[in-house]
Amino acid sequence: MNKSRKSLVAAARSRVGLTFVTPALLVMLLLVVYPLLYGLYVSMFKTNLLNRWDFVGLTYYAQSLSDPGFLKSLFTTSLYAILVVAGHMIVGTGLAVMLVSDIKYRVVFRALLILPWLFPDVVVALIFRWIFDPIFGLFNFGLSAVGLISEPVAWLDNPFWAFVAVVLATIWKGYPLIMLMVLAGLQSIPRDRYEAAALDGAGRLLQFRYVSLPGLVAVLGVAVVIDFVWWFKHFTIVWLLTKGGPIDATNVVSIDIYRTAFQSFNFGLASAMAVIVFFICLLFAIVYQLMVASDET
Amino acid sequence: MATAKLDNITKVYDNGFTAVSNLSLQLADGEFLVLVGPSGCGKSTALRMIAGLEEMSEGDLYVGDRLLNDIEPKNRDIAMVFQNYALYPQMTVAQNIGFPLKLRGVKGTERKRQVHHAAEILQLTEQLSKKPGQLSGGQRQRVAMGRAIVRQPALFLMDEPLSNLDAKLRVQMRADIADIQKNLGVTTFYVTHDQVEAMTMGDRVAVIKDGLLQQVDEPEKLYARPENVFVAAFMGSPSMNLYEANLSLHNEKFKVHLGDQSISIPTRLTERHTTLGNYDQQTIVVGIRPEDFEDAALAPTHPDDQQLTVTVSGREALGAETLIHFPLNAPSIDTGDPDALDELASIASGRCTARFDANSKARIGEQIRTNVTVENMHFFDRETGLVI
Questions:
Q1: To probe the interface with B, which of A200, A209, A211, A296 has the most B CB atoms within 10 Å?
Q2: Percent of chain A as helix, strand, coil, to the nearest 5
Q3: Strands B282-288, B241-250: pairing kind
Q4: How far apart are the first and last CA of chain A?
Q5: Residue-wise pLDDT tens digits, B100-136
Q6: What confidence tens digit (pLDDT) does each residue in B292-342 have?
Q7: Distance, CA of B41 to CA of B207 (rounded, Å)
Q8: What stretch(es) of chain B map to CATH 3.40.50.300?
Q9: Which of helix, strand or coil describes residue B9?
Q10: Which of A101, A129, A179, B289 has the most CB atoms around it within 10 Å of its CB?
């Protein structure tokens, strides 16, 4: 009797819980799970998405993983994402450290420094296209003004410099997110910990090393994962600046997928490539989780 | 180890607020000085100025013969224990304690030896490889102490180090800290708002209010001879009962009129109040500590004219003693202690607190006679609040 009443209460409780969770669950199913499963499904067919659905199994996976072009684009993307994330961490942390100290007009600087995050990707790409423009660009203008170059250089036409330009543009666009996260992290470190370090004999640098950095490890870890996953899939800025060129120098995997799907109309292959990217990002997040878990014990 | 001297130290903030004004104190070598006061009285600011975490607006600070005014915190040779411990969470206990040594370039084995020595003093040897997150509040407190003592600094600063501990642990740590300080002989400047800590730990106690030093003395003297109404009310728990009373002098006896009752005091018992005679026929402030009341039923030989008739309104049996509350029909005094909310409430009701022997049979609602130990009564000028 008592037991059954208890289980009745538990059942009623879980019903109430389910009611609250359902809307979010439905949205998730519709917007996340369905496209994911559909992508998986498509990746196993040779299809035009309309009337032709020939089952090919894992053929496309085998094909992409043995395609040097795809592997090279994965490598390019990894390098791009790693450099971008490293740039974000250094610039974002540096600026956050400056913003957290008592400088004049801090509020103004904070507002200004967030601006890049507010610009749409397209605008950022166009701004940097203009900056790197051989004739009218600010970059060449500056370099020739100080005498470093004597005639215009077409930066985006050079494979190495085009890659550098793409990375720089992306660092500029993305650092504010990291800056804000680190700023929040820095502000959550108790002030007396710095004071204790100061009395223990630590100057500014050592305080950063022994108080700020350890206090930021958790925030930076999350930031690295979010940032890496985000920019690993990035398309817009790279596409608008270089279209993946010159000679595949900036051919990141999202451009590869886009071309396969919408220029070659091979939706199955493109889906297989997208699923592989998904698993790379997933793997990255899992490895990170394991690292965090092992750090806590 | 060194002496320390605060010479007219003043702190005025940018917004014009004066947190500390003209604070002058001298600490003897190895002395434990407690700075006590209600919240917001400037005591922590004073401590932080000594540490160098806060700039002094005026005044000079010496530790030993060294003028520290413009010396950075890290070069002051001063260690501090913070209210929230301020340990480094990523480091083990051993690393936390050894950190100041590491920054001073003390080599590995020597550092280890000193850390172990400090850990032994503080009974932390078992905890050395744990991180602060795995420790109890009391243990963290010890680690913070360890980090301070391992340096053998010239001066120890402690900023309410016990306020985050539960009551029982606080009593124990109180004794432990005092013990450790005595054994190490480090000159110590200790800040607290808890007058019990001040009384029990300090060689001397400095009472501060609104940034102004009120009195510095040994705890017993501070308690027995408060120099003004604030110190009188602040030191001691329950607080001293302070009322306005009219004074008259008749036949070698002072008469203190408390509302509609009066107490007689032979003048030979008021010799230390040399100027009390000048207040004949005037209103003064009288102070009676709770323990200077006693249930007349328990001490029937007490002179009749040194008694009050009161109606018991509250009773707290504490086991070893019983606190009795009763209203007194006389105006109470605002002592200026911002933390004394219960004092304010008692002003409204004119409530008086007495500390009776546990054998007292007094019950709520009863009318009783209470003896007053008149030779222990305190007298203050009503205008200045200073002792008479």
A1: A200
A2: 80, 0, 20
A3: antiparallel
A4: 44
A5: 999 988 888 999 999 999 998 888 899 899 999 999 8
A6: 999 999 988 888 889 999 999 989 999 999 999 998 888 887 777 766 655
A7: 10
A8: 4-234
A9: strand
A10: A179
DSSP characters for A145-157?
HTTS-SS---GGG
How does pLDDT run across A171-194, given as a tens digit for each residue? Answer: 999 999 999 999 999 999 999 999
Asked if the ipTM is above 0.95, the reply is: no
Contacts with A197 from chain B: Cβ below 8 Å: 88, 99
Tell me how far apart the alpha carbons of residues B85 and B161 are, in angstroms, rounded to a whole number. Answer: 7
Question: B86 contacts in A (CB within 8 Å)?
Answer: 190, 192-193, 195-196
> Rounded to the nearest 5 degrees, what angle is found at the Cα of B363, between the Cα atoms of B361 and B365?
145
Query: Is-contact B285 B242, C-beta < 8 A?
Result: yes
Q: Where are the domains of chain A?
A: 2-42, 69-296
Task: Assess if CATH 1.10.3720.10 describes domain A69-296.
Answer: yes
Report how many Cβ contacts below 8 Å link chain A to chain B: 59
pLDDT at position A287 is 85
Percent over 70 (pLDDT), chain B: 96
**CATH (residue range B241-381):** 2.40.50.140
The answer on pLDDT for A32 being more than 70 is yes
In a 13 Å sphere around the CA of B157, the CA atoms on its Cβ side amount to 26
* pLDDT, greater one: A106 or B144: B144
Chain B CB contacts of A203 under 8 Å are 74
Please state the rounded mean pLDDT for residues B168-173: 86
Q: What is the structure's pLDDT at B100?
A: 92
CATH superfamily, domain at B4-234: P-loop containing nucleotide triphosphate hydrolases (3.40.50.300)
Strands B187-192 and B155-159: parallel
Cβ atoms of B206 and B4 within 8 Å: the answer is no
B198-to-A94, B148, B149, B262 alpha-carbon distances in Å: 45, 21, 21, 35
Chain-chain contact of A196 with B73 (C-beta, under 8 angstroms): no
Q: Has residue A4 got a pLDDT over 80?
A: no
Structure tokens at B140: 């963290």
What's the confidence (pLDDT) of residue A297? 45
